[in-house]
Write a structure and sequence with these properties.
GO terms for molecular function: DNA binding; DNA-binding transcription factor activity; pyridoxal phosphate binding; transaminase activity. There is one protein chain. The protein starts with 7 loop residues before the first helix and ends with a helix. It contains 14 helices and 9 strands. Helix 1 packs across helix 3 and helix 2 packs across helix 3. The chain has 2 domains: 64 residues, Arc Repressor Mutant, subunit A (Orthogonal Bundle); 252 residues, Aspartate Aminotransferase, domain 2, CATH 3.40.640. The chain is of the alpha/beta class.
């Protein structure tokens, strides 16, 4: 059961998840008890408990008191079930109603200034006048390499360095995405959503459709009817509604994209600060069709003044990006890129994220 670079409970989590998605454990079925599963897999009950809790966090299982764990995921959730979803109504959404456009943004504690200052001095000492050099168009190899390793060990995203593009914040990357897909493309957005997403797309010349949110993501009826070419979603705690996409909804987004030459843009803002034991699985990692663009930024995890974001392209779009947009210069100074590379590579970035997550868990208890 154990692999060299994996925890036992994560290995079991992945195995059960595959069985659920494939239908080996159908919707509504009861999983073996923790003790039975432990005996069958030759694992401890605690290990099985952790795996089951992760599956509940992701929306694959539902824990019922004094009854056990039941499968909450079903492949047919989505287009065929939109009438049932519609009956939930907006009044059952978490937090403020989407119609009000209100929500509460999470404000992360500041990154330790002493660590930033120490790292800045180290970068200037080690690189000297190299910090004045022009950056390669996609970004410094040092930063892209560290992001590549970080995504592989924390987000289940395994990509080549050439798939990673550095830019000065996600608004800049939104504009590149419009250029990548073409100004005649139609972008479907969550409604409500972060207003700068719609503003940036419209200013860049794209057409936009706004799709109302349901209880666990975009309402299935609206998704089924959209004529969009690209779906832009924030599956982790969409702002301002605070809605997190369920496992079933993420698979629904991928089925929608798989019905044509469509793509999903996954805006993974704030997901590092999830309260769950394991950061939420990404749509990019779930996709088997190479049709998801992944976006993230360091504005929350490091500082709002550090305007650095990154985009991970699906392999099939790398050549298109290079031919259409490869001439664009990187908009992030070399010094800031090397600073971030040091923070990630030496573990300071992840230590800060873990401190914040532990603090949030204590507050939630």
């Amino acid at each position: 059961m154990k692999e060299p670079n994996g925890c036992l409970y994560v290995q079991l989590y992945e195995r059960i998840k595959r069985d659920i998605v494939s239908g080996s454990f159908p919707y509504g079925s009861r999983l073996p008890s923790k003790r039975t599963m432990a005996e069958e897999a030759n694992l401890s009950v605690i290990t099985v408990k952790h795996a089951y809790e992760l599956l509940c966090d992701e929306g694959y299982l539902e824990a019922r008191e004094r009854s056990g764990y039941y499968v909450a995921f079903r492949q047919e959730d989505g287009f065929a079930a939109y009438a049932e979803e519609g009956s939930l109504g907006r009044d059952r959404l978490g937090g403020e109603s989407p119609a009000t456009g209100k929500g509460v943004a999470f404000s992360a504690p500041p990154f330790p200034f002493s660590v930033l200052a120490k790292t800045m001095r180290r970068v200037m000492t080690e690189y000297g006048e190299g910090i004045l050099e022009r950056s390669p168009n996609k970004g410094r190899i040092e930063l892209r390499s560290e992001i590549q390793r970080y995504l592989a060990r924390n987000r289940g995203i395994c990509v080549d360095i050439e798939q990673i593009v550095i830019g000065s914040g996600v608004e800049h990357l939104y504009g590149l995405i419009v250029e990548l897909f073409g100004r005649g493309s139609v972008f479907a957005l969550e409604y409500p959503s972060y207003e700068k997403i719609e503003d940036t797309y419209r200013i860049a010349g794209a057409r936009v459709e706004l799709l109302p949110m349901g209880a666990d993501g975009i309402a299935s009826e609206a998704l089924a009817k959209t004529s969009a070419d690209v779906l832009h979603v924030s599956p982790y705690r969409s702002f301002p509604s605070g809605i997190t996409a369920s496992a079933s909804k993420k698979h629904e987004y991928l089925r929608w994209a798989g019905q044509g030459r469509r793509f999903v843009v996954e805006d993974d803002f704030e997901s590092e600060f999830s309260l769950f034991r394991k950061t939420k699985e990404t749509i990019f990692a779930l996709s088997g069709d190479d049709n998801v663009v992944y976006l993230n930024t360091f504005s929350q995890t490091i500082s709002p003044s550090l305007r650095v974001g990154y985009m991970v392209l699906p392999r099939k779009l790398v050549q298109r990006y290079d031919s259409r947009l490869g001439f664009y210069s990187c908009t992030v100074p070399t010094f800031e890129q090397l600073l971030l590379a040091e923070l990630i590579g030496r573990g300071d970035f992840e230590r800060h994220v873990n401190r914040v997550r532990r603090g949030k868990r204590r507050e939630a208890q």
